[in-house]
Design a protein that fits this description.
This protein has about 625 residues and is α/β, with parallel strands linked by helices. Helix content is about 20%, strand content about 25%. It is built from 13 helices and 31 strands. Strands 1, 2, 5, 6, 7, 16, 17 and 18 form an eight-stranded mixed β-sheet that branches. Strands 9-10-12-13-15-14 form a six-stranded mixed β-sheet, with helices on one face. The protein has a five-stranded mixed β-sheet with strand order 25-21-29-24-30. The longest helix is centred in the middle third of the chain and has 18 residues. The two termini are about 35 Å apart.
């Protein structure tokens, strides 16, 4: 889940810097991949001796997701190095800016989307206003929008840009805009959304809610940034908040802007793209190992006039060179996620052609290490401290406990990890049970008998604190989206279709466990060898709990109507489950986080359930 801004800034330090480049005439057999080397750096050094070349350094981040504090666990490391934290990032960026300026380069700080959304409570409790303030302090110049920027809808993202406080009742629904007398002036940088168009442009000053591009002057040379999110954003964002906009093809959008930029005498163009790839070896963060994913074709097919692609969305670190449609080299990079890394891209601009000299371009991914004694930004630490004080009463409220399941030390975690055979998880079961039991989705005395939950909406394990308590903060880390729970009528045939959509339709190309819906009130077995493309991977009957005792006991009947509950993201067909949209008699209940909180309070201490609701056969 890009943005943009006015000043000039530089980027991160502290890690091994490996360069990458592609010499003219290099082998094109693997256009998407090149091992790290020194070609680009060597060309850069040679051409930089000519004093009339303009030096531009980009400091790039992506997928920050409101991680103001260093993330924990594996999410807080790059390989074996502890990394992340806004205050460390601020210091690193300042250090890299100074290095750039000392070398005669102009630094700009850019991002490729998902700066906000799915954020920890420290930012999420305040509608991500703290993160926008942090980005201002980091002197972000420009960013693309990402899918998570739309988690609370287009209008809320426009507020992130322009500023202003929400009348949200001082903490209503677990969020508080402008808490404790804080103001919110919005972003100093601009969000760019070239491929996000108003469905009805009437009454709007331009066809897009956000600027499609921004032009900076660097050493007298014009440099344009085009910002885009993935075209598939509607399938992974709640539909209600984006009902007024369309998301268009990334390549077509960017290529259509090139002639407009040329008319403005812009020859140096960089795309900030919230779409990416996944390398086969993510530990080799300064290389490009066997990458695959939707971002690759985009990076290869963008107009030859576009000089580089700074990407995101996959949360992966990579540093690639792709060939454009004319066979010329083009940098294609990503800086992992959560502020753990910065990509530094080095460019030379020829003042005669006004274009970036691509064979001389190179990049390095730099870890934002946060070891003890590492320098931190005082201003960012003050910001974080202020909001930690404001969030404490919300975060520390005790909502329950986890029951020991055997002798010895009681478990401190309800895990979101699914069984290796693609089944349910302990935390998935808890969340589905909680939504099925939520009184706010009972319609006319009719309560849901089935609950379905997308695993992508479960963002962390549920963890007790040192005192053995489950707090609101821990629950929020699990479900940070503030989705609503929605009950609806679906027939047995429609429910079976939804289950098969886990492997078919839009999910057919990636038959992985991350689309296995977590369930309550049903159980079934699926055939892993007969999943994608068959239309029916379910083996035997889907059993339904008809008497409410927690044990599915009767076969799902195709012509029987059942009351089903899911979050509004799924209800709107998100994650490529279109059959949800056919549900009738929909009732919008409370927030999903409230369902979880109420259930834990009602079942205190909570006993972890067996993972026996979904099974697979090879």
């Amino acid at each position: 889940m890009g943005t943009l801004r006015r000043p000039l800034v530089a980027l991160a330090a502290g890690a091994v810097a490996v360069t990458i480049g592609l010499a003219p005439g290099a082998d094109s057999a693997a256009p998407h991949e090149r091992a790290s080397g020194t070609t680009g750096a060597k060309e850069y050094r040679q051409l930089a001796k000519k004093t009339d070349y303009v030096k531009l350094d980009l400091l790039a981040i992506n997928d920050f997701h409101g991680n103001l504090e260093p993330p924990t666990g594996s999410s807080g490391r790059i390989n074996n190095t502890n990394a992340g934290g806004a205050s460390f990032l601020g210091s690193l960026l300042n250090k890299e800016r100074k290095k750039s300026r000392a070398a005669g380069a102009t630094p700009l700080t850019v991002a490729a989307g998902d700066l906000i959304g799915a954020s920890p409570l420290l930012s999420g409790a305040f509608h991500d206003e703290p993160t926008i303030k942090a980005m201002n302090l980091l002197h972000l110049d420009v960013t693309s929008v990402g899918n998570h920027e739309f988690d609370e809808g287009v209008n809320e993202l426009l507020r992130m840009q322009k500023g202003g406080c929400l009348p949200d009742g001082t903490g209503a629904n677990g969020q508080d805009s402008c808490p404790g007398g804080q103001d919110f002036k919005g972003a100093d940088f601009k969000y760019l959304g070239a491929n996000v168009f108003w469905k009805n442009a009437a009454g709007h000053s331009r066809p897009t809610p956000f600027k499609p591009y921004q032009i900076f002057k660097v050493g007298g040379q014009k440099v344009a940034f085009i910002g885009m999110t993935l075209e598939g954003t509607p399938s992974i964002v709640s539909a209600a908040g984006i009902a007024s906009v369309d998301f268009r093809d990334e390549v077509d959008t960017a290529n259509a802007l090139v002639p407009k930029l040329k008319k403005k005498h812009v020859k140096s163009i960089v795309v900030l793209l919230h779409e990416g790839v996944t390398p086969t070896d993510a530990t080799a963060y300064n290389s490009c190992s066997g990458v695959s994913g939707a971002g690759l074709a985009i990076a290869q097919n963008l107009s030859p006039a576009i000089d580089a692609v700074v990407s995101g969305h996959t949360h992966q670190p990579y540093k690639c060179v792709v060939k454009d449609p004319k066979g010329k080299p083009r940098l294609f990079t990503s800086a992992s996620s959560f502020g753990r890394m910065v990509t530094k891209l080095h460019f030379l601009i020829d003042p005669k052609t006004h274009d970036i000299v691509r064979p001389a371009a190179f990049a390095e991914n730099i870890i934002n290490a946060n070891a003890a004694g590492q320098k931190q930004s005082k201003k960012l630490n003050t910001l974080i401290s202020t909001y930690k004080t404001l969030v404490a009463p919300i975060e520390n409220k005790v909502i329950g406990h986890i029951n020991p399941t055997g002798p010895g030390t009681p478990p401190t975690t309800v895990s979101k990890t699914q069984e290796a055979n693609g089944s349910d998880s302990p935390l998935g079961n808890l969340i589905a049970d909680a939504q099925k039991a939520d009184p706010t989705v009972v319609q006319g005395g009719k309560a849901p008998v089935i609950a379905l939950m997308n695993p992508g909406g479960i963002r962390a394990d549920l963890v007790e604190n040192a005192a053995g308590d489950v707090t609101y903060g821990a629950a929020f880390n699990v479900q940070p989206f503030n989705n609503f729970v929605v009950s609806m009528d679906l027939t047995g045939a429609q429910i079976r279709s939804i289950l098969n959509e886990q492997w078919n339709g839009g999910n057919e190309s990636t038959v992985t466990f991350n689309k296995i819906l977590q369930v309550s009130g049903i159980s079934y077995t699926w055939d892993a060898s007969d999943a994608a493309g068959t239309g029916n991977a379910i083996v035997g009957d889907v059993l339904v709990d008809t008497n409410g005792d927690g044990t599915p006991d009767a076969p799902l009947a195709n012509d029987t109507t059942y009351r089903v509950v899911a979050n509004n993201f799924l209800s709107d067909g998100g994650d490529n489950f279109p059959t949800f949209k056919a549900g009738t008699n929909k009732l919008i209940g409370g927030l999903d986080i409230d369902s979880l909180v109420k259930y834990l309070q009602a079942h205190d201490p909570y006993t972890v359930t067996p993972t026996d609701r979904i099974s697979s056969q090879p």
